[in-house]
Amino acid sequence: MTLEQFTTKVEELEVLIQSGRDYKQSEVNAKELLAILSIMEESHSLSEIETRILIALAQSYRMRGVSQEVLPIAEKALAIAERIGNKELQAQAYSSVGMAYSTIADNTKAIESFHKAHEIFLAVNNRKQVAMLLYNIAVSYFQKAEYYSSLENFQKALFIAEQLNEPIIVALQLSKIGLVYSYLADYQMAVIQYQEAISIYQQHNYQIGLLSCYGNIGNLYREIRDYSRAIDYLNQALLIAQELEDKRNIAVTFGNLGISYNDSGDYVNAEKYFTNAIILEEELGNKVGLASNYLNLGNCLERQKQYEQALEYYQKSLLIAEQINQQHFISIIKGNIGSIFTNQSFEGFSPQKGEKLIMESININNVLGTRANNIVMLLCLAELYEYQKRWEEFAIYYKQYHVLEKEVQSEQAVKQAQLMEQQRKIHEAERDRQVKLARFQEQEKIFHNIVPVSIADRLLNGEKTMADSFDNVSMFFSDIVGFTHLASQISAKELVEGLNAIFTEFDHIATKHSLEKIKTIGDSYMAACGVPEQRDDHAMRTVQFALDIQEMMKNKTIGEKKNRISIRIGLHCGSAIAGIIGEKKFAYDLWGDAVNTAARMESHGEAGKIHVSEEFVRELLMMNGELSTEEKFSVAIPLSLTINHSLLTIIPRGEMEIKGKGMMKTYFLESVSAP
User: Fold this and answer.
1) Beta partners for 558?
2) Whole-angstrom Cα distance, residue 645 to residue 425?
3) Helix ranges restricted to H, 246-341
4) Which of 45, 97, 508, 585 has its CA 20 to 30 A from that of 563?
5) What is the chain's Cα-based Rg?
6) Cis before residue 532, ω within 30 degrees of 0?
7) Are 80 and 51 in contact (CB under 8 A)?
């Protein structure tokens, strides 16, 4: 396998990962590529490829719930990226490490890694990735239940996405902001955010985004016990997932539908959807999903007093949870199993087993800091001891139950007050964001009219020194013939209005042909093609622009007396330096021989004509396929040329003295249709 073929395989792996359709296959493909890589001759480029494969493999493991494998793989990718000094890959690897920590619920370390990735992407001015890292940071804060910090970062990401005009990323942030609001119990605001995201997704036919929003709204309605609406939205999500053949999201939606039916008391449908979710999760190899759905199915059966079957699924869930070290799951499952064994209506009633499991659940909750989960467990123990007439232990645990319940209620009251304060701050932050965004958009609009869009974005991102070199650009200069005399014949108002009208038309034609207006000086107009974005067809576009300007200026008048005017046009191509100088009243400008020579072509030209250099003609002929780079260039007689369906004649002017340049061969360009 050649390096090119191997690289293509890696790119296919990355596409498969991004599609989210088959993480199990992604894992297989990644391992095969690593095996091939191990026998290939070592090189710097292969180290970069290995890093990309490892990042993909880490993501595959993470999405399949194989949490113990994610961090070592991600850290290996980071070590290679740091060794070879590839900043872009370092940032990606830090992000992968962050996702690994997130997988094992170490959100503090996840945030640290995400911040490191964020700093690198910020330094290399990758604002799209900056927005996505802020998103990841926000998600980590969300998982820590630090909702205000989460929302703050989502809003920062949203602001950047809006600046970048990335509607899909905008919608993603809005949907997550909606999720935060739902956890803050501000359901109205949550739905508003979701609906705004849905509107964007529908406009761009982004089905995976719609799927996510419908799923989130469904879960929101389940939280407020509006099960009919919950199921309706979840079914909309399911339909999209099935149309996309997205097994991962089909499984997730099956599970959510199961929970909704279970909470509503429709156990038949609940069992059906939990079972369907389990089948898919087994196929996908997603252990987290399997553990979750076995747990939910067990709960469904327990509610129906089918204790033996419930235990069967609880045990399946526990086995997987222990394999992947999901302590939160383990505490819930052991507590549920323990409560069944302490239930006197259960044929397998076993106080000893129940006591042991409930104690283990309590201890895990104490370690995890999820004390609220112990309220039910402590009451369950107290009732067990009451049944056994173990009065001393009953008194201890019943008291612990009441103390904890009171503490949790107090904590919840404090938390509720904090949440209300957070909501106030959130609403203020959202209002400030809207005001800042509106102000920014207005400033950005003005800014983009002053300097090129890409240059404006670089300045807005904090770039201080703006200087770029271009090997080959085309320059356009024009000047109104006899302008000084004309200015003395008409009023200032007529002059300014006339020039404004003319140069506004110039601007529109420049946009049409992808030329960048550089500046006007009095009656002179300067434009360039190939800056700030390089173009291979810069000479051809500049010719088309010049021809359109020439045609536009025919019979052009200015002032109330309809004073006839004409212009000289000069074209040249070559190297130039572009940049911005100063802080006040700055402008994007060009310097270099190409600029000076084009100006000379204009000043030594003739009224109504396009005057060009020999270098420009040569470039034009090469771009049009009339001349190769190796051929000698010579045009002694008028030469006809077709440029994008426009007939053009190149007319030799001969050799002439050009001020500051010496003797030069120059030419006139004329449209064949011109009189």
Assistant:
1) 563
2) 61
3) 247-264, 267-284, 287-303, 307-323, 327-341
4) 508
5) 35
6) yes
7) yes
pTM over 0.90: no
For residue 387, the Cα-to-chain-centroid distance in whole angstroms is: 59
| CB-neighbour burial class of residue 126 (10 A; exposed 0-12, middle 13-18, buried 19+) | middle
**In a 3-state reduction of DSSP, which class is residue 631?**
coil
- Final residue before a domain boundary, out of 125, 140, 162: 125
- Spatial CA neighbour of 178 closest among 432, 430, 413, 414: 430
CA–CA separation, 565 vs 115, rounded Å?
A: 61
DSSP bridge partners of 650: 639, 669
Q: Strand pairing partners for 654?
A: 666
Q: Answer for the pair 95, 59: CB distance below 8 angstroms, yes or no.
A: no
The CATH number that applies at residue 635 is 3.30.70.1230
Strands 516-521 and 524-529, bridge-based pairing: antiparallel
Residue 586 DSSP symbol: -
Do the beta carbons of residue 339 and residue 380 sit within 8 Å? yes
Between CA 187 and CA 429 the distance in angstroms is 18
Tally the domains of the chain: 2
At 189, is the secondary structure helix, strand, or coil?
helix
Structure tokens at 33: 């590529």
Q: Classify strands 563-564 and 557-558 as parallel, antiparallel or unpaired.
A: antiparallel
pLDDT average, residue stretch 474-484: 91
Say if 548 falls within a structural domain: yes
What would the two tokens of residue 620 be? 């034009």
Check which CATH number belongs to the domain holding 115 and give it: 1.25.40.10
Q: Two tokens at 518?
A: 């550089």
Nearest-angstrom CA–CA distance, 45 and 485: 65
* CB neighbour class for 205 (10 Å; exposed up to 12, middle 13-18, buried from 19): exposed
SS3 191: helix
| C-alpha dist (Å) from residue 537 to 478, 525, 543 | 21, 21, 10
Taking the alpha carbons at both ends of the chain, their separation in whole angstroms is: 62
Q: Residue 281 and residue 284: Cα distance in Å, rounded?
A: 5
- Is residue 247 one of the residues assigned to a domain? no
| Number of alpha helices (DSSP H) and beta strands (DSSP E) in the chain | 26, 11
- The upper half-sphere exposure of residue 663, i.e. CA atoms within 13 Å in the direction of its Cβ, equals 2
Q: How far apart are CA 243 and CA 210, in angstroms?
A: 12
> In one letter, which amino acid is 15?
V
Q: Is the pLDDT of residue 162 over 50?
A: yes
- Select from 333, 342, 346, 339 the least CA-distant residue to 293: 333
Distance CA 329, CA 273 (A): 20
For residues 565 and 83, give the distance between their C-alpha atoms in angstroms, rounded to a whole number. 66
Structural domain boundaries, residue 59: 1-125
DSSP-derived 3-state class of residue 648: strand
pLDDT band at 123, cuts 50/70/90?
confident
Question: Given 125, 157, 183, which residue is the final one in a domain?
Answer: 125
> Residue 643 falls within a domain, yes or no?
yes
Closest CA to 358 of 321, 320, 401, 316: 401
Q: Is 568 helix (H, G, I), strand (E, B) or coil?
A: strand
Tens digit of each residue's pLDDT (9 = 90 or more) over 623-674:
877 776 666 666 667 787 777 777 888 888 888 888 888 889 999 998 876 4
Q: Please indicate, yes or no, if residue 409 is contained in any of the structural domains.
A: no
